[in-house]
Write a structure and sequence with these properties.
Elements: E1 19-25, H1 29-38, E2 45-48, H2 63-68, E3 78-80, E4 85-86, E5 116-117, E6 123-124, H3 131-144, E7 147-148, H4 173-184, E8 190-191, E9 194-195, H5 227-235, E10 240-243, E11 247-253, E12 260-267, E13 270-281, H6 285-294, E14 319-326, E15 339-341, E16 359-362, H7 368-375, H8 386-393, E17 396-403, E18 412-415, E19 421-424, H9 430-446, E20 450-453, H10 458-464, E21 500-502, H11 517-536
Parallel strand pairs: 1-2, 1-13, 2-10, 3-19, 13-21
Antiparallel strand pairs: 3-4, 5-6, 7-9, 8-15, 11-12, 12-13, 14-17, 14-20, 15-16, 16-17, 18-19
The protein binds flavin-adenine dinucleotide and iron/sulfur cluster.
């Protein structure tokens, strides 16, 4: 079925006269960062956000509410390539997914922006911009989002970048011990760059209290740097407005189809329309692609900006596994997520595997409720007694093992005949990923811990880290010079549309093997400069 056949039928649209210099769709890492930066231009800006303000309430830190009852997750189901329904790990609130993120804010490496050959000859393509084009924006982004880190500690990072504005988060004693044991093996574990407001020099007044409920939870003390804070900064300017509960359903184009003439959105009151001289999509990689596909019209029969059938393709979300290691003595740690390893990022240092393998980072403390919540995806939670889960949680250390997910045209977002989102996905880069898991387990075993990977074989991987793990979604509206192979140009403007830009992780050309948000934030700051120049002209 072609996209034109799936066109959203014309609805009764409440005509509004409102018109803005810039309309931004979505208030997550990309949209909110862009809004607060563009606010300084004095131009009128409207942020359209489908979610509401997330309540600050005791349940923010309740593992039962967050993981078992899924209090804040979107109540939405999509379909995988076999037509099976799944609930994505996605959150629609002012601030987007950053409210729930783990706050690990990494730069991509210089080589991540260049063409890189992976195992089996698979190619991670070059970006149309270089690392140097983003370097200053990375520095600004780290300061704006309060990143704590230690420059030069990560052997693969840009050691010449200026120091972080905040010192690294210290390791809990148990993590310090592990750090020492890994170093004795010749590895170079380093302090993870984390975006939280922690003041170790003044613990009594530190907003961040290093609690056990950080990644995956909203911060009840609002001490995690997230999109909410960027929205607050933006709204300090009188020229910025935020409309919540405003789900964008399609974009309309002017006669001829070369510019967006109106943004159509749905609220509890009905359908409305607003105009923007410039329209910026920042609804997240899957929803941004879905909006363009649903905006098919006579000038764009396959969806907006989709003449070359690239919209929605090259979806990536990281080839990732959770590894847990167990030791009988109880681990005295509340905040284990401070240590990371990049020794295997570009290959095995012993020379046995000369292809990129990936990145390893500590995960949050696993409470019994979180363990039950995670396992409840595959078995009823009553089968897992709370006391047993607590006992295990106190003795586990969890790590995220992440390899690059390589872009493939067949991995794509589509719109089903019922108007719902469909995600076709085939895993890739599994040989490098398996090697990385084995090397990590060997290092942890040497360090005195018994390791198990939740992904013991491919079948289990589908169970444990399957398609619903959309946290690191990216790549669906790829940036590039050639309109035949990309959707937006190097300035993140849609090739086919004069006033449409994209400022979220959709524009990523490759996923690298570190977390995506800082690159999205830095690129948003770059887009803000591009737009400010255009608006001034
Ligand atoms: C549990 C979890 C942990 C994570 N941990 C990390 C981490 O430690 N480090 C890291 O770098 N990244 C992490 N991520 C990923 C990170 O959150 C994302 O990369 C980042 O938020 C992407 O920013 P974005 O602007 O592309 O999209 P989002 O932040 O998802 O923002 C999109 C916004 O658009 C809104 N929206 C969607 N559709 C519409 C529509 N139709 N109309 C209007 N508004 C719409 C959404 O409600 C949302 O506010 C994590 C994600 C999750 C879920
Ligand atoms: S207090 Fe600190 S550790 Fe706890 S959720 Fe907030 S930012 Fe994370």
């Amino acid at each position: 079925m072609s996209a034109s056949e799936l066109m959203v039928p014309e609805m009764d649209v409440v005509q509004t006269d409102k018109s803005f210099d810039v309309v931004i769709i979505g208030s997550g890492a990309g949209g909110a960062t862009l809004a607060q930066q563009l606010a300084k231009t004095g131009k009128s800006i409207l942020i359209l956000e489908r979610g509401e303000h997330l309540p600050v309430e005791p349940e923010n830190w309740s593992a039962k509410e967050v993981f078992l009852r899924e209090r804040y997750k979107a109540k939405e189901t999509w379909r995988d390539r076999k037509g099976r329904k799944f609930q994505p790990n996605i959150h629609y609130w002012v601030g987007g997914n950053t409210i729930f993120y783990g706050a690990a804010l990494y730069r991509f490496r210089k080589q991540d922006f260049e063409e890189t050959i992976h195992h089996g000859g698979a190619v991670s393509p070059a970006w149309p911009i270089r690392y140097e084009d983003l370097a200053d924006y990375y520095t600004q982004a780290e300061a704006l989002w309060n990143v704590h880190g230690k420059r030069g500690a990560d052997p693969t990072d840009d050691a010449d970048a200026p120091p972080y504005t905040h010192p690294p988060m210290s390791h809990d004693p148990e993590i310090s011990k592990l750090n020492g044991r890994l170093k004795l093996q010749g590895l170079h574990p380093f302090e993870m760059p984390l975006a939280v407001e922690r003041d170790d020099a003044n613990v009594a007044e530190s907003p961040c209290v290093r609690c056990r409920t950080c990644g995956g939870f909203p911060c009840k003390r609002k001490a995690k740097s997230d999109g909410r804070k960027m929205v607050e900064l933006a709204l300090e300017y009188p020229n910025v407005e935020l409309l919540t509960d405003a789900k964008v359903v399609r974009l309309e184009t002017a006669e001829g189809g070369s510019s967006v003439s109106a943004v159509v959105y749905e609220t509890k009151e009905g359908i409305a329309r607003v105009k923007g001289d410039i329209v910026v999509l920042a609804a997240g990689a899957i929803n941004s692609a879905a909006i363009l596909l649903k905006s098919a019209n006579k000038d764009h029969p396959n969806g907006l900006a989709n003449a070359s059938d690239q919209v929605g393709r090259n979806y990536m979300f990281h080839t990732a596994s959770a590894s847990v290691s167990f030791a009988w003595p109880k681990i005295e740690t509340d905040f284990p997520k401070t240590l990371a390893i990049n020794d295997f990022y570009w290959g095995d240092p012993n020379g046995s595997f000369p292809f990129p393998m990936g990145h390893i980072q500590g995960l949050e403390y696993l409470s019994g409720e979180v363990i039950r919540g995670q396992l409840a995806q595959t078995m009823p939670s009553w089968l897992i007694p709370q006391a047993a889960a607590e006992f295990i949680g106190d003795r586990l250390l969890a790590f995220l093992i992440m390899s690059e997910d390589l872009p493939e045209a067949r991995n794509r977002v589509r719109i089903g005949s019922d108007g719902g989102i469909e995600l076709d996905y085939w895993h890739n880069n599994l040989v490098a990923h398996d090697r990385l898991i084995k090397r990590f387990h060997k290092a942890m075993t040497k360090a005195g811990r018994a390791c198990r990977c939740l992904r013991a074989n491919r079948y289990q991987m589908d169970q444990i880290l399957p398609i619903y793990g959309t946290a690191h979604q990216c790549g669906t509206l790829r940036m590039g010079h050639d309109p035949q192979t990309s959707v937006v140009d190097a300035r993140c403007k849609a090739h086919e549309i004069d006033n449409l830009y994209v400022a979220d992780t959709s524009v990523f050309v490759s996923s690298a093997a570190v977390n995506p948000a800082l690159t999205c934030i830095a690129n948003s700051l770059r887009i803000a400069d591009i737009l400010a120049q255009r608006l001034a002209g």
